[in-house]
Amino acid sequence: MVRMILTGNESAAWGARLSKPKVVAAYPITPQTSIIETIAEFIANGEMGARYIRVESEHSAMAACIAAQNTGVRTFTATSAHGLTLMHELLIWASGARLPIVMSVVNRAMAPPWSVWTDQLDSMAQRDTGWIQIYSENNQEVLDSIIMSYKIGEKHHILLPTMIMEDAFILSHTAEAVEVPEQKLVDEFLGEYEPAFKLDPEDPGGFGSLIMPEGPYMEFRYKMALAMDEARNEIRKVSQEFGELFGRHYPGLLEEYRTDDADAIMVVLATIGSTAKDVVDIMREKGKKVGLARVRYFRPFPYEEMRELAKKTDMLGVVDRSHTFGYGANLYTETKGALYGHSSIPVKNYVMGLGGRDITPSVLEKVFDDMLKIAKEGQVDREIEWVGLKGDERWS
Amino acid sequence: MRKLTIPEEEYMLPGHTACLGCGAAIAMRYVLKALGKNTIISIPACCWAVIPGVYPRRTLKIPLLYTAFEVTGAAISGIREALNAMGKEDVNVVGFAGDGGTADIGIQALSGAVERGHNVFYIMYDNEAYMNTGIQRSGSTPMGAWTTTTPGGKKRMYKWEPKKDVAEIMVAHHIPYVATATIGYPEDLIAKIKRAKEINGPKFIQILSPCPTGWRHSPDKTVEISRLAVQTNIFPLYEVVNGTYRITVKPKNLKPIKEYLRLQGRFRHLTDEEIEMIQKHVDERWKELLKKERCSNEK
User: Fold this and answer.
1) Which of A207, A225, A246 is a domain's end point?
2) Do A53 and B58 touch (CB under 8 A)?
3) Do A56 and B109 lie within an 8 Å CB cutoff?
4) Do B85 and A23 touch (CB under 8 A)?
5) Shortest distance, CA A212 to any CA of chain B (angstroms)
6) Which residues of B sit within 8 Å Cβ distance of A?
7) Do residue A200 and residue B74 have CB atoms under 8 angstroms apart?
8) Which domain holds residue A95?
9) pLDDT of the residue at B3
10) Residue numbers of the domain that contains B188
11) Of A71, A312, A375, B220, which has the most beta carbons under 10 Å away?
12) Going by C-beta distance under 8 Å and a sequence separation of 6 or more, which residues neighbour residue B263?
């Protein structure tokens, strides 16, 4: 193991390098570029053996990964925002074809207006594509998650692709100390890629044929749903195996921080987690009993963990860095859906940080105070609240 | 006795679901005969996504990857690089796409793939409209044709823009092999695939494939119409090897375009003036091609 100072994007490139994909197909988009540039340097230096297809669009990047993976090799790609949404059609293709492709996604705001800063609408809009989705809190998690994603997705009872998210700039372009595992250890952990099926002239199969309503289309989808449900156990299992081998322990689908006696718990994704943990400590010192739950895997959603979480507290405040326009934001509606019929504690949605607007400790402290007030009163004032709008004195 | 030059081995089995007299079905059969067993094919949304049959039955004896409409170029890039990564450089990788999937929605992925220089075949089977969806106009629909999105009405319509010349677009990519072919000249078609097989790099072959359903002709006229397309010069057969043109079939007795048009219901509405206009367009293109052949051979 070596300790390096790496940005989130360099960590992603290292995660890919250590996992030894045989084909990388990618197209540049800010702020993903340094992932595919770093990979290019690895390949140019002979440190990575992948065939590198510099495609003419993200749509083709995913198409090339699908075709390569279906031919029988491990693949990797990376994208962001408009690139990810351009891929949408093929994201559904990749999971439907049951190909365990691994992709880094740098969460960036969607235009208009143009913005390259962080926002999670891009990946939230891919919720229903059948990909495993993991949101990272730090660069170490970016690197480790890529390795674990190959292991989880490639299991023959799973066979699902995974996207690993990192917040634009907050992680993608910010360097921190990252432990880079030994190649030998990663080889031992992942093993050789063993495709469940492949294009082979010696055993000519057809992949993606026409199917009639009485054909097994619905059964294929049902098997996908079962695989995604089964992925929950596999994530828990592989997180543990990873911890035993590499000494870094990840808490499966949901991470909890000081939740055991909390009056109110904030539910977040990605880097908001690390800021919020500090704020929890500050609040605790002031005698305010708050806790934090960071959802690592948004797909499959940790509904069981969420129900257990609700038993520990009087209120959940769900922070979203995106919105669905028409009702609450994604993490909120998913959380509420998981709790319905299992818990009657108040749940409130805080929409904040869109387009890269900073989520500062002082804003989070105000949100925690609001949550504690709701916990005490037992009911939500406003179900969905936008926090940090210009001119709104309440949160500034 | 004349020697049979078409390989006997069949890679397309009976039981396909193409329309009666389908030129695209014949095109696939010849292409596979020329390529042989060691081949992987990728097919996007098009007639050929349906022709192999309904799951789990399949008329092709070679591995087949179905893909989204616009990605054939990217798909064959991915298959090629994966095979090379596994040390299987000897497997033929073929994209087999219709004219809509090639000239229109798939042209970006095609351009990217051939520009990157992957060792792949891209076969455009050209039936000159979106036939699988019911005869809608594509960029490859010829001048004057009726389609369901260019119907004739009180104010008149039809397709009047010239047919997009994808083979020439491919020549402009400076790839090692570009050719046109048609099912009515099977030996020419097979010879071109075999020649392409010897070349490392992107190979593009456009095969004119008459469509009785969409062209509105009798299914027994498919081969005749294919041959007339060459004999009237509306679809000349040529190849471009590393930039050098060679017209492979030069009509001995050139026929007027009217003979080609009158067999097809899609041109039934054309006036004498319009036929004359199409004839002029065909003549000009042929002259251009002759010039290209002459000039490129001078170097």
Assistant:
1) A246
2) no
3) yes
4) yes
5) 7
6) 37-40, 42, 49-50, 52-56, 58, 60-68, 70-71, 73-79, 81-86, 91, 108-109, 111-112, 115-116
7) no
8) 2-246
9) 76
10) 23-298
11) A71
12) B217, B221, B224, B225, B228
DSSP secondary structure letter of residue B210:
-
pLDDT tens-digit profile, chain A (396 residues): 899 999 999 999 999 999 999 999 999 999 999 999 999 999 999 999 999 999 999 999 999 999 999 999 999 999 999 999 999 999 999 999 999 999 999 999 999 999 999 999 999 999 999 999 999 999 999 999 999 999 999 999 999 999 999 999 999 999 999 999 999 999 999 999 999 999 999 999 999 999 999 999 999 999 999 999 999 999 999 999 999 999 999 999 999 999 999 999 999 999 999 999 999 999 999 999 999 999 999 999 999 999 999 999 999 999 999 999 999 999 999 999 999 999 999 999 999 999 999 999 999 999 999 999 999 999 999 999 999 999 998 887
Sequence length of chain B is 299
* A320: enclosing H helix or E strand: strand A316-320
**Shared-domain flag, residues A264 and A223:** no
- Give me the count of residues in chain A: 396
Phi and psi (nearest 5°) for A145?
Answer: -65, -35
The CATH code of the domain that includes B248 is 3.40.50.970
Q: Are B73 and A60 a contacting pair at CB < 8 A?
A: yes
In tens, the pLDDT along A292-332 reads: 999 999 999 999 999 999 999 999 999 999 999 999 999 99
* Assigned token pair, A282: 């500050």
* Interface predicted TM-score (ipTM) of this complex, two decimals: 0.97
Q: Is residue B82 part of a domain?
A: yes
Distance from CA of A270 to the nearest CA of B (A): 32
Work out how many domains chain A is built from and give that number: 2
Closest approach of B206 to chain A, Cα-based (Å): 22
User: A393 Cβ partners below 8 Å, 6+ apart?
Assistant: none
Say which amino acid occupies A26.
A
Kindly state the tokens that stand for A92.
């559904």
The Cα B283–Cα B289 span in angstroms is 10
Option in B66, B86, B109 nearest A207 (CB): B66
CA A123 to chain centre: 8
Q: Do B82 and A201 touch (CB under 8 A)?
A: no
Contact B242, B176 (CB under 8 A): yes
CATH code (residue A285) = 3.40.50.920
- Closest CA of chain B from A225, distance in Å: 21
**CB atoms A90 and B37 under 8 Å:** no
Residues A204 and A330 both lie in one domain = no
| Contact assessment for residue A31 and residue A116, using Cβ atoms and an 8 Å cutoff | yes
Mutate which: B35, B60, B65, vs A, most A CBs within 10 A = B65
Q: Do B55 and A204 touch (CB under 8 A)?
A: no
In B, which residues are within 8 Å of A199 by CB distance?
40, 63, 65, 79
- Minimal Cα distance from A52: which residue of B? B81
Average pLDDT over residues B66-74: 98
CB pairs under 8 A between A and B: 151
* Residue A348: DSSP 8-state: E
Domain boundary among A193, A213, A246: A246
CA distance B45 to chain A (A): 10
Q: Is there a domain that residue B264 lies in?
A: yes
